[in-house]
Specification:
5-stranded antiparallel sheet; 206 residues; alpha+beta; two-stranded antiparallel sheet; single chain
Length: 206
């Protein structure tokens, strides 16, 4: 969305994105503490837990203290210099001092004269998603460590009995390289009566 040269004002932009948290600031990126906050919408109040009167009229540093403000200003400068929206992905401070992960877009708004008028920041809180991603990464690392270190032979197969992953213990048991086992069918190592067990397990897990 190109909103340069006054083609879209911030009130219209905020109205179109009411589900997102909206913060409108002035264009003074060089001011101590960052630009002044001119407006926040109800979604911002609900998501951030700040009351509007706590932030409107204050500098942006109330949301992005310390080095976080430097990151926020760098993203705003990128948007202003390119004269188009830019990505937001950084931490923001909540009223209790805790940090939340947010992502969204910076929109610089320009007058017909070409002068930068203000910024519209539209964001979503992705803290829960980031936490889930981090927990998943830790779990995957732990699972991988256990998978490789355990003495028992372990394999992962797909619904066609093809080997997706084999640990060193299983590879030693069948006298093969773990890498060479990937993609091979498990059938040769199964009793005929057990040949359909992996497929039935896959179907049961769906």
């Amino acid at each position: 969305m190109d909103i340069a040269h006054g083609t879209l004002d911030f009130e219209q932009l905020v109205a179109e994105r009411v589900a997102e948290a909206a913060v409108v600031t002035d264009a003074d990126l060089s001011a101590p503490g960052g630009p002044s906050i001119l407006y926040v919408n109800e979604s911002f109040v609900r998501r951030s837990q700040f009351a509007a009167e706590q932030v409107v009229g204050r500098r942006l540093e109330i949301l992005y203290p310390g080095e976080l403000l430097d990151d926020a200003l760098a993203q705003m400068r990128t948007a202003a210099e390119a004269r188009r929206e830019s990505d937001i992905r950084l931490h923001a401070r909540k009223p209790d001092g805790k940090l939340a992960w947010i992502e969204g877009r910076n929109y610089p708004v320009f007058a017909d004269s070409g002068a930068l008028v203000c910024f519209v920041r539209l964001t979503n809180d992705i803290t829960a998603r980031r936490r889930a991603e981090q927990e998943m990464a830790v779990a995957q690392h732990l699972l991988g460590t256990i998978f490789l270190a355990v003495d028992q032979g372990l394999i992962v197969v797909d619904d066609q009995n093809r080997i997706v992953m084999a640990n060193p213990s299983f590879a030693r048991a069948v006298d093969a390289n773990p890498v060479d086992l990937v993609g091979r069918t498990l059938t040769p190592w199964l009793d005929p009566a057990d040949a359909t067990v992996p497929q039935r397990c896959c179907e049961a897990s769906r």
